[in-house]
Amino acid sequence: MRNLWLIALLCFPLPTRAQTGLNGQWIAFKRASAPNSNLQCFKPNNVSVSGGNLVITTKSELAVCSSIDLPFTIYHYTSGFVSMRNFNFLYGTVEFRAKFGGGVNTGAWPVVWMADASCQASDPTGTDDNCNGQEIDIAEILHSDFTHVNQQIHVENFSHNDGCNASTTDTNQNFHVYQLLWSAGSLVFKIDGVTTCTIIQKYVPNAPMYLKIDNFVGKFGGAVNDGSLPWTTLVDYVKVTQGSAVIFEDDFDPKDTNQPPKAVIATPSSSNRSDKSLGLKIFWGWPLGALVLCLVILSAMIAFSFRGPRSSGGKGS
Fold first, then answer.
1. Nearest Cα to 235, choosing from 309, 297, 177, 159?
2. Residue 268: what pLDDT?
3. CATH 2.60.120.200 correct for 2-275
């Protein structure tokens, strides 16, 4: 009977409202990750706003999700992924204060990064790479080494990957202020006001971009230590300026924002219908093959559970 309930919950998850607490400037993803980092399912319920921080929690738990580039699959980990909903910009200074979830040898791979705005519309359902493919990693923790911060670009199908591996005190134990000064042909990275990396190249990204924040599991984070979970990433504020003008700002304090906090869910089969139809949206969002498979499994499990006990007579011949 336990297996029957497990199959039922995985095939037909209970409809719940995601309480992210994010304001409308952000979107929380509900999807599988990507083919090159596919150990976790991103869930809006793993994103919250608390104590003046954006909180992203990574857990060891079963979840089923998909994206436009990955089929419905059972995942053993869940995490959070948020990005700017509509806002993107060309050049300026990005600043944020953060403490990253995970720790040494945990398998955590947190990153705050920017992608080309041509990816922004498809990103909540799974980036299909039909975009310009420009990327700036402002602060990325690789190989669970939380005393080094990868600051790097990836452009022109990874033909240019300039960057630095800056040293700092443990980013899992300490908040740091990260800055990126972005101008034509130039990127200057800073941690706590100290310049840590400079890239001066004609191929520095030169199209509007948007900010993304998440924590992947494994892959470039290294082998996963299940005992270290859950992980918690905290972001105190995010600010974007051009010259002296602040063009984007969020200190993750609902009292101070002009946009009331609200739940934001992005799904591969999103809809503007009311929450009363959420159960139907979950049902019809499934591919027909997945529904049929789940129904067959459930039917078999039900039939098996109601079979009478076999005779325990002598040995067979």
1. 177
2. 39
3. yes
